[in-house]
Amino acid sequence: MLLLRASAGYSLRPALAILCAVLFAAACEAAAPTAPVATNQVDLPRSYKFAPEDITVPVGTTVTWTNNDNFTHSVRLQDGGETQFMKPGESVTHAFTTPGVYQYDCSLHPKDMQGSVQVDAGSQ
After folding, report:
1. Residue 74 belongs to what domain range?
2. 21 in a domain, yes or no?
3. Does the global pTM surpass 0.90?
4. Which end of the chain is more exposed for a tag (fewer CB within 10 A), N or C?
5. Of the candidates 66, 85, 67, which has an alpha carbon nearest to the alpha carbon of residue 75?
């Protein structure tokens, strides 16, 4: 076993362990939340996610989700809205007529696939 020693004869193992712990903790930090993207199109790429996850639209906008994955997914509004299923290559839409923030997920993969639509009052 290779043992690293500092010039004064002290082992570097504790310092390396601390450095590794700090680097590991930094790598595990949750990503900072990102600002919603102004778009009415959400892609479901081959990765079990919505892209972008969080969007913003003016009131009256119809949002389209398109499933470009190899598996069936859905869009389920958390406020009790209808769950819309999409096979690969299909799209679903929803018109947002009231301002607010609408959380949604894929009912088949809710832990991996979540997003939101921020609907702003104002001109269409």
Report:
1. 37-120
2. no
3. no
4. N
5. 85
